[in-house]
Fold this protein.
Amino acid sequence: MSEIDLDTARKVAHLARIAVPDENLPALAQELSQMLTFMEQLNEVDVEGVEPMTSVTPMRLKRRLDGVTDGDMQAKILSNAPDAREGFFAVPKVVE
């Protein structure tokens, strides 16, 4: 079992930029110790042959057909542009 001392708890709180009063440091150290103990228990679990999961429920991502859509609407799209030149959107120069 891993034990976190008060100095380590203070350092973790500082690194996490969490203001923890000195009277709350023993409780924080205890909670951090419990987290480490739980992680050590998880390391003991045999996961040999278990496939990684993307979700807790088996599901497949929805897919669409890879087909040609109507497209070919360049003139219609550029009609909304405040400034269009030679078939492209014209924008002001930003970098000098």
Summary: The longest strand covers residues 84-85. DSSP finds three helices and two strands in the chain. The chain has a mean pLDDT of 89. The helical segments are 6-15, 25-43, 74-78.
